[in-house]
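Give me structure tokens for this 143-residue protein.
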Amino acid sequence: MTLNVANCQRCGKVYLKNMYGMCGNCIKEIDLQYEKCLKYLREYRSCSITELSDATGVSHQLITKFIREGRISIKGNPNMSYDCEVCGTAIREHNMCEPCRSKLAKETNQMHEDENRKKQREAEENKNAFKTFKIHDRLKDRF
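Here you go.
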């Protein structure tokens, strides 16, 4: 028999498992912080993420999480942006800036090409291995 309890990711208290991975108190606290952010954004649409964090006391990380979850929309807030997960450049959509995404795509394509070349080389070596042999291979059993 397994217990349906776990430790809260945020505060460490034991709670009944849920889809948030947090206890009820932490969920309520995060929702209150979310409400603070919304109230501030309704009044000051032109604020930046730093100004929002300073005014509400909510961390940059949590505000960024709200934005990525879609709870806070930055479409109506022209100065709102968050950091690229790779290089830290200010962005307004996705997890990475365009240069980092194109670099990742280029590296992925290069990796696939290298794997394909390696497979082709191995296939040719296997194909040629049956046609030819080295004298060393033939004589190694005798000595």
